[in-house]
Amino acid sequence: MRKVICGLVCAVALAACGDGGGGVKAANIHAGEMPSGESWAGVYYHPVFGYLHMMEEGEHVVARWKRTDQSAWGEMSGTKTGNVLHYTWKEHKIGLVGPAAMSEGKGYFVYKQGKEGIAELDGQFGLGADEAGSDWHNVKQVRMNPDLKSISGDTGGVAPAGAGKWE
After folding, report:
1. Which residues pair with 50 in a beta bridge?
2. Which domains does the chain have, with CATH numbers?
């Protein structure tokens, strides 16, 4: 009986981990016009992912963020078409090494005018080849300039207590 229960638990777990035969999750969105006078460049905020610093050059956009709990920082790059940005991303867990230290995937944002004319990025991101799966909504911050160099895994030059002391 114990073997049967273990077998069923393993079968259910494996089925839950699979893609269910659905394949890659791709975004089915269509680009519209970018709102007049607006730009992807700026700083956007999400309560978990923190401040997303975005810069654009031509049709390309690059960005970086650091989570509000300081546990990870990420980087993305992508191509914009009108008010839609398709991107690839990597997130680095601060203080970890090895395969679990980095996640990566794809995603998209749709640039919109939100309440009171404040810009918003509405989109999703997925792991691996998936472009969708988890929501990511950001609000553009007024009077904040993007600074990609301010986002990294560096602890700001402050060494942990006891670092460099050998006894």
Report:
1. 46
2. 31-150 (2.40.128)
Residues contacting residue 11 through CB under 8 Å, at least 6 positions apart: none
CA–CA dist 56, 161 (Å, integer): 39
Copy the structure tokens of residue 18. Answer: 């699979």
* CB-based contacts of 30, cutoff 8 Å, min separation 6: 84
Q: Which residue has the higher pLDDT, 146 or 21?
A: 146
**pLDDT given for residue 158 in this prediction:** 39
Global confidence as pTM:
0.77
Q: Which secondary-structure segment (H or E) carries 10?
A: helix 2-17
Q: Which residues pair with 135 in a beta bridge?
A: 124
Q: Say if CB 124 and CB 135 are below 8 A apart.
A: yes
- Token pair in block for residue 33: 């016009």
109 in helix, strand or coil?
A: strand
pLDDT in tens, 91-129: 999 999 998 899 999 999 999 998 888 999 999 999 999
| Cα distance between residue 82 and residue 85, in whole Å | 8
Amino acid at 80: K
**Which of these, 151, 87, 85, lies nearest to 119 by C-alpha position?**
85
